[in-house]
Amino acid sequence: MDKSNHGVSSRLSRRQALVAGSGVLTAGVAGCLGGGRGSGGTTAVASFFSFYDFGRQIAADTPVAVENLVPTGLHGHGWQPNFDVTRRIIEADAFIHVGPGFQPWADRAIETIEGDGIDTDLINVREGVELVDLAASLDREAEGVGATRGKDPHFWLDPQRARQSVDNITEGLVAVAPDHEDTFRENAQTYKTDVLDRIDSDYQAIFDAADRKVVQLAAHNAFQYIGVRYGVEMRPLVTNLAASGDVKPQDITRAKEVIRENDIRYIGNGVFESRRPARQLLEETQVEAYFPVTPYAGVRKEWVENDWGYEEIADNINMPTFEVVLGNEAPENVGPDGWAEEWRNFE
Predict the structure, then answer these.
(1) What is the pLDDT of residue 162?
(2) Which family is this sequence assigned to (predicted)?
(3) What residues make up the domain containing 183?
C-alpha cells in the first residue's frame, strides 16, 4: 500500500470526486477526513457488530482504530445505510465485511472500491470458513437477504468457526499496519483461547445438561450453527434469513405443534425483532414467557454504555436464555441479579 504523500493526495482527490459525484457537499468530506487517512491514523470499519468487536479486540493497545458502521439499536443486515456510510468505508484503510451475498449494501460498497481503484483493503471475515447448508425447513423461495448459494451465512454463532474470522481480521490488520503485527497476533491468540474457547465450553455445558434438544425461537433463521455445533434443533419462527421476514400462519401453526409436542414453557425472541408473534404464542399456547436471543448482529444503547461485545452478549443474553428455554434452570436462577425481571417478555 502506497503511504507516500503523493499517494495520499491522489487518493483523497479520487475520493472527493466520488463524493461530489454522489451529490454530497465537499465540505462534508473535509470534515470526515480529519480522523482518517489524511491525518496519518489507521482506521478499519466493520459492516457487522460481531466483527467490529473482534477487530477492536485484536487492535487493542495499538493506534489502529476499528469502527462499527451499524447504528445502535439496528440489526446488522436489516437496514439500508445512506451515503455517509459508503464515504466512511472509502476513507478507511480497511473494510471488514462478511463476504458476498449477506449485506447487499456492503457488496455495493465493495463494487465501488474495486471499480474505482480505491485502495481501501478488503477483509473478508468468511474466507476459509466452512458453511453449512441452509436449514431443510427453509422456504427456498423466501431465502431473503443473506442466502449464499444455498449456504447459511451465520457462522459466527459457532465460536469455533468464529476463530477463523479472528484469523482473517488479524491478517487484514497486519497488512494495513505491519508495525503492530506482534500485538495483533498476540491479542488474537488470547481472544481465541480466553474468550471463544471459553464460550464454546460454556455453551457445550448448557446443551449437554439439557434433557430437551429442541429450542423454539420467535426469531428469524439465524441460529442453525448453534444447533449444528451443540446437537440441538433450533426452531425459528421466521423461516427465511432476513430479520425483517414476515411470519406466516403456517409458521405459527408449526410453532404451536413444536411447543405442544416438546412441553415447552419458555421461548426465545430476537432482541431486534418484532415481539408480536411471541405474544401471540403466549396467548395461544402453554408458553409462559419469552426471553432474549441475538445473533450478535447489533447492540442496544445500554450495551454500548456498558462496553459489551460478543463475549458479554453471550454471557448476559444468549446463555441465560438457552438455560431457561431448554428447561435447565428457572428464569430467576440464571444471569446477573434481576435478569429474569428485566428480560421476561421484554419490550
Answers:
(1) 98
(2) Belongs to the bacterial solute-binding protein 9 family.
(3) 5-194
